[in-house]
Amino acid sequence: MKFTLFRKIFYSSAKIFHTRTLITTNGHFNRQKIDIGDSVQIERLFTQEDVALFARLTHDDNPIHLNESSAIQRNFAKPIVHGSLINGVISSLIGTKLPGYGSILIEQDLHFPNPLFVGEKFITKVTIADRKRNIYFCQYECLTMDGKKVTEGMAKILFRP
C-alpha cells in the first residue's frame, strides 16, 4: 500500500495524512525509508464524553475540564481538554505511524501556549527533525482549525523496529 502526499486515510474516526509517498505495510511507514523531514498528521476532536472518560481513568476531575460554569469562572469560554489527553494523540502518531511500532519515548518537551476547548477540532503534526542511529528526534505541534497553537514540543524516541 502507498500513501501519497496528503492522501486521506480514515482510521479510528480520525483523518490521517502522510506527507511522503512511502511503501507501507498495514498503514505504517516503511522503517528503512524514514528521512528527516518526513511527517504525519491527524485531525481530531474531543467530545465532552471523551474528556469525562479520561477524567475517570486518570482521576483528574478538575472541574475546569468537566463543568462549563467552572471554566467560565476561570476566564475560559468553555471546558478545556486535559493536556495529557492531547499528548496522547502525539504519542499515538509516534508509536503507531512515525517512526511507528517499536518506538519508545525516552524524553519529551511539551508546551501548551493556548487551551484546547472541548469540541474544538485540531490537527496534530509530527515531523522527524533529526536522527542519530536508532534515536529519532520528533518535532510536533497541535493547531486548531483557525490556526491557534495549543501544543508544541519535541520528543526523543528510541526506535527498535
Describe this structure in words.
Strand 8 and strand 9 (135-144) form a beta hairpin. The protein has helices spanning 48-58, 63-66, 68-73, 83-96, and strands at 2-3, 9-11, 14-18, 22-25, 28-29, 39-44, 103-111, 122-132, 135-144, 149-159. It is built from four helices and ten strands. With 161 residues, the chain is an alpha+beta fold. Residues 1-14 and 18-25 have low confidence and may be disordered. The chain has a single domain, classed as Roll (Thiol Ester Dehydrase, Chain A), CATH 3.10.129.
The proportion of strand residues reads 35-45%
CATH structural class: Alpha Beta
Number of distinct helices: 4
Give the overall form: elongated
Identify the CATH homologous superfamily: Hotdog Thioesterase
| Sheet with the most strands, sense and barrel status | 7 strands, antiparallel
Physical arrangement of strands within the biggest beta sheet: 2-3-6-8-9-10-7
Question: Any guess at the CATH architecture?
Answer: Roll
Q: Report the span from N to C terminus.
A: 19 Å
Contiguous uncertain segments of 5+ residues: 1-14, 18-25
**What number is the mean pLDDT?**
85
Structural class: alpha+beta
Helix content: 10-25%
CATH fold name: Thiol Ester Dehydrase, Chain A
Question: How many structurally independent domains?
Answer: 1
Computed CA radius of gyration, to the nearest angstrom: 16 Å
**What pattern of helices and strands is seen along the backbone?**
EEEEEEHHHHEEEE
Number of strands: 10
